[in-house]
Write a structure and sequence with these properties.
Strand content: 5-15%
Distance between the termini: 40 Å
Radius of gyration: 21 Å
Bound molecules: pyridoxal-5'-phosphate
Number of strands: 13
Strand order of the largest sheet: 2-9-8-7-6-3-4-5
Oligomer: single chain
Structural class: alpha/beta
């Protein structure tokens, strides 16, 4: 990077921008109405009681500047949910902070914990990954190190293959569990390894857990704080988890989540956020307290996703390398061999012939060590109604069965 080149110029185009370019000049088959599995945005209805709580607090909630730390009642509601969901105990006064969705918090956290004056400042993140990790890293003045997920190990990122020399300059590690796009949940053994590495190399772990309530197996996904507590690390040293109501409660437009964990990190994060100016509106706080306090709507939401995945996955399994994920709302599918691992060709032809949009996996990953671990896969977000997702799957089956790519 040149001395005067702004950090901003290092940002990569966002995947949806690349998708627009990929699809430029493609005319989708007009015989089919468009169905998009491209964007991972919740589309189930926002529960009425959350809308009512928000509307009911407009008069007082908008009348004053909210404190950046949020109200004690909100922090207690978040801590109460952590206790019920994971059995972990956090101090609402020092170990919880409200954030405006996990996206801005994932970004802002890097700005808080990364010291770019250290030589080779590095942030480690999974590959494929949620794109914010990379932008947060670059704008914090650090360099990303990508850790490929291994399809043979339920897409576990191979933390064990990261060289010690990289760990030595690592300041922050992003964990995404349940993973976007893989849906994989990180097991306790991997947490143990990361905690040991964090002890040795003093890096911070940021655990992005916004899909934790959408899961398909019996047991709810293990959380980062839960893993720490199980391993006797109840001070959560160098660990913060980030979660959000967006997917859990179908309120992506409300922008509400929280971070919890290491009190020292949260103290610094509060200072950063005070200057950054990201305090949650009082009305949103009131609605968030209502949402964190209710599980019935979360169970209903999970049931809807389970029904949808149970209807769609078996349709695709015979024609693609795909299986029911542990959690989240994506299918992370391998394109058939005939496509010679070209996820972009597959996505473009699928749009042209059947008017279904999927996201090429290579757009969600980076070339590292000579390979792009997203290549040859596509991400399908099952966020629309079940009937629409089933129709999309049926079209994909037809597409694969009828089509051989150009030689
Ligand atoms: C892995 C992951 N983390 C965080 C987010 C951010 O969600 P929000 O800011 O709504 O909490 C998303 C959204 O798509 C995501 O996929």
């Amino acid at each position: 990077m040149g001395a005067h080149e702004p950090l901003l110029s290092r940002l990569q185009p966002y995947p949806f921008e690349r998708l627009r370019q990929l699809f430029a000049g493609v005319t989708p088959n007009p015989a089919y109405r468009p169905i998009s599995l491209g964007i991972g945005e919740p589309r189930h209805a926002t529960p009425q009681f959350i809308q009512d709580a928000l509307a009911g607090d407009l008069a007082t909630g908008l009348a004053g500047y909210p404190p950046t730390a949020g109200s004690p009642a909100l922090r207690e509601a978040c801590a109460g949910w952590l206790q019920r969901r994971y059995g972990v105990q956090v101090d609402p006064a020092t170990q919880v902070l409200p954030v405006l969705g996990s996206r801005e918090a994932l970004f802002a956290l890097a700005q808080t914990v990364v010291d770019p004056t250290q030589p080779g400042a590095t942030v480690v993140c999974p590959n494929p990954f949620y794109q914010i990790y990379e932008g947060a890293t670059l704008l914090a003045g650090a360099q990303p190190h990508y850790v490929a997920s291994d399809p043979a190990r339920n897409f576990a990122p191979r933390w064990d293959l990261v060289p010690d020399a990289v760990w030595a300059r690592t300041q922050l590690v992003y964990v995404c569990s349940p993973g976007n796009p893989t849906g994989a949940v990180m097991p306790l053994q991997e947490w143990k390894l990361l905690f040991e590495l964090s002890d040795r190399h003093s890096f911070v772990i940021a655990s992005d857990e916004c899909y934790s309530e959408i899961y398909f197996q019996g047991e709810p996904p293990l959380g980062g704080l839960e893993a720490a507590a199980q391993l006797g690390r109840s001070d959560f040293k160098r660990l913060v988890m980030l979660t959000s109501l967006s997917k859990r409660s179908n309120v992506p437009g409300m922008r509400s989540g929280f971070v919890a964990g290491d009190a020292d990190i949260l103290k610094a994060f509060l200072l950063y956020r005070t200057y950054h100016g990201s305090a949650m509106s009082g009305a949103v706080q009131t609605a968030s307290i209502a949402a964190w306090g209710d599980e019935a709507h979360v169970q209903d939401n999970r049931r809807q996703y389970r029904e949808k995945f149970a209807a769609v996955t078996p349709l695709l399994e015979p024609v693609m390398d795909v299986k029911l994920p542990d959690a989240a709302f994506y299918l992370w599918a391998g394109v058939p061999d005939a496509w010679k691992s070209s996820d972009t060709d597959f996505a473009r032809a699928l749009l042209a012939q059947y008017n279904v949009t999927v996201l090429p996996g290579s757009y969600l990953a980076r070339d590292a060590g000579g390979a792009n671990p997203g290549q040859g896969r596509v991400r399908m977000a099952l966020v629309a109604e079940t009937a629409e997702c089933v129709e999309a799957a049926q079209r994909i089956v037809q597409f694969i069965q009828s089509h051989t790519p150009d030689p």
